[in-house]
Amino acid sequence: MNAHCVQLGGEQLAPHCCPAMILSPFLVAAVVVFASAVTGCPVLCTCRSQVVDCSGLRLFSVPPDLPLDTRNLSLAHNRIATIPPGYLTCYSELRVLDLRNNSLVELPTGLFLASKRLSHLDLSYNNLTHVVADMFQEAYNLVHIDLSHNPWLRKVHPQAFRGLVQLRDLDLSYGGLSFLSLEVLEGLTGLVTLQIGGNPWVCGCTMEPLLKWLRNRIQRCMSDTELAECREPPEVEGAPLFSLTEESFKACHLTLTLDDYLFIAFVGFVVSIASVATNFLLGITANCCHRWSKASEDEEM
Ligand SMILES: *[C@@H]1O[C@H](CO)[C@@H](O)[C@H](O)[C@H]1NC(C)=O
Ligand SMILES: *[C@@H]1O[C@H](CO)[C@@H](O)[C@H](O)[C@H]1NC(C)=O
Ligand SMILES: *[C@@H]1O[C@H](CO)[C@@H](O)[C@H](O)[C@H]1NC(C)=O
Questions:
Q1: Are 214 and 243 in contact (CB under 8 A)?
Q2: Which of 14, 58, 255, 271 has the fewest CB atoms below 10 angstroms from its CB?
Q3: In the chain, what are the domain boundaries?
Q4: 101 in ligand 2 pocket by Cβ < 6 Å?
Q5: Which ligand is nearest to the CA of 122?
Q6: What digits encode the pLDDT tens for the residues 36-65?
């Protein structure tokens, strides 16, 4: 644990009021303020038995100084746009973090470095644009991640969820994803449910490895198959992702068609004509030069 946190969280900080202190109201006030800064509950939030609820308070920033033993923290239904990088460093007991329905555009790197016990993370209904590599590194006990309803979420890094072997549920539905690298999912050996519906998937050749993988795991890995649709290319617009068969991707592996051969033959023909013409011109030029120099030699003589 971080030394800074140990210092703040020591037993000696639960202040026992002795009579001498009660005689001095200022001293008592000072102790109360000190105590509430360390173990107290943020203004307006409710705190009981390691559950801190700061939801629906129209907060624009995260509340400071939570109880150090906080297990469940809800900041849902606020207007929080950013989280300071070290915000969670002191709350190593944190199991559940609910950030649903805020205005988060990105998360600072290293936010979860001390969140070794975190198991449930809800980031749905935000404005996240991308998930970077190793975003959840060190939070390797994560079981459930909800990133749904982030309409601007266009990119999930291939290593975004690296190392999360405990992850059972991943919700990426209702985002702006057109592509997802197979590498994102391959390492998630414990995955049981995966939601990917409501995204504008581009069902081109790049989608084939992912679909193949999903199809093989579909029994173990329950997915919202009927909700996931292709947005592009036009031929398959609106088609359910999982209606695409091996046949649909035949073109991706196809060797050359007749048109390709004709094109190649045509290009070859044009190139050879061009080279013949060039040789011809060079020949004429050389011949002319030769004659001309011969003629001038004759003149000189
Ligand atoms: C903490 O959150 C989890 C998951 O949302 C919930 O199941 C659990 O009951 C909560 N704990 C308390 C004490 O509210
Ligand atoms: C988000 O929070 C606002 C209050 O801040 C609430 O009115 C709205 O219904 C919430 N939306 C969702 C999807 O939970
Ligand atoms: C989300 O981002 C978009 C564009 O970046 C912006 O127009 C919108 O107001 C944002 N919404 C919230 C709730 O912050």
A1: no
A2: 255
A3: 3-10+24-199
A4: yes
A5: 1
A6: 445 689 999 999 999 999 999 999 999 999
